[in-house]
Amino acid sequence: MHLRAEYSVGPDLKFLSNLDMMHLMERALRRAGIPYKLSEGFNPHIRLSMGTVLPVGLWGDCEYFDLELELMSLEEFKNRMNRVLPSAIRIKQCQEILPGTPSLMKTVNAALYAFAINISLSELEPIQAAIMMQASIQVQSRGKHKEQVKDIRPGLYRAESGQQDDMAILRMLVSVNQPVNIRFDELVEVLNRFGIGSDIIKDFWRQGNYIKQGQEYISPLDMF
Q: Of 3, 71, 132, 148, which residue has the fewest beta carbons closer than 10 angstroms?
């Protein structure tokens, strides 16, 4: 069977790299006695495929991985994994998927980032509006092509502000891969440019990953 799992990564593990997270999941699969399948060849490995890379320094509410394994109940998989995973990581839900389902890396094309900012909501709202009113937002690329300047405005889909305890929360829904790949640190640059310095950004995390279909944003689990 093929399985897609949604999991959360708490702040305590936000400095794990993507490779560290993959190794952690592989160790958990072994410790939990999950009947995973192995690839063929001289160096067989667990048929585990992680979703879009969670940037080092961020924690995540809704991250995903795909796994090929022998038949077992979804609830048993979830319970076994949560017994052996660190407390900062929880399998939240999982879904059986069809063989040949396009990978998470190919289908996830939007991400929701959240920032906890030490200002009042009344101060944040006009900044949010000013950002969204821009026709163009040029930033220096932080990706492979660092020499390029790119316009991220076409991929900045939505921004919303709210209140959580004594912090203002800014949530930004952005493009991943196409039409433009927007990185978390590029959003930080934009916030700095509009007067939200790194000294008042008290926390940040990736709240969700989505598959954008037209004007709809679908969870990688809801597509089945």
A: 71
CA-based nearest residue to 33, from 99, 83, 104, 88: 83
Residue 166's pLDDT band (boundaries 50, 70, 90)? confident
CA–CA distance, 168 with 22 (Å, rounded to integer): 33
Q: What is the pLDDT of residue 224?
A: 57
Which two tokens mark 207? 């709240």
* Choices 3.40.1000, 2.60.40, 3.30.450, 3.30.70: CATH for 108-218: 3.30.70
User: pLDDT band at 113, cuts 50/70/90?
Assistant: very high
Give me the CATH code for the 2-106 domain, please: 3.30.70.580
DSSP 77: H
Q: 9: Cβ–Cβ under 8 A, 6 or more apart, which residues? A: 16, 21, 54, 59, 60, 63, 88, 89
